[in-house]
User: Which sequence fits this backbone?
């Protein structure tokens, strides 16, 4: 057996091995595609019933007082008059707590 015959046999073995690997990879990708075709749930899920619509109400007189109290709490916090963040702010029968104040840019 000469060198030429050995190289041809090695090339044939290489091509046979690479062909086997690529054909198996193609087969695996085909199987994955078929899983998607057969086992994919084509039924669209029923759209959820729309929840209650959120309507923004125009400002009432009470809202103006609430805005004033919240603005005062923010100004007091920024000036250092409120050392504790969880200090409740009373407005009528409701209490509000300012948990964090972050400046947006």
Assistant:
């Amino acid at each position: 057996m000469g060198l030429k015959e050995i190289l041809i046999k090695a090339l044939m073995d290489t091509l046979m091995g690479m062909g086997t690997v690529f054909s198996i990879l193609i087969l695996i990708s085909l199987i994955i595609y078929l899983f998607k075709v057969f086992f994919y749930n084509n039924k669209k899920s029923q759209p959820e019933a729309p929840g209650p619509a959120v309507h923004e109400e125009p400002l009432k007189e009470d809202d103006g007082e609430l805005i004033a109290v919240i603005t005062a709490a923010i100004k007091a916090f920024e000036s250092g008059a409120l050392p504790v963040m969880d200090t409740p702010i009373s407005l009528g029968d409701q209490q509000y707590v300012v948990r964090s104040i972050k400046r947006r840019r």
Notes: The longest strand covers residues 88-91. The CA atoms of residues 63 and 69 lie 10 Å apart. The mean pLDDT is 77. Residues 3-39 form the longest helix (37 residues).
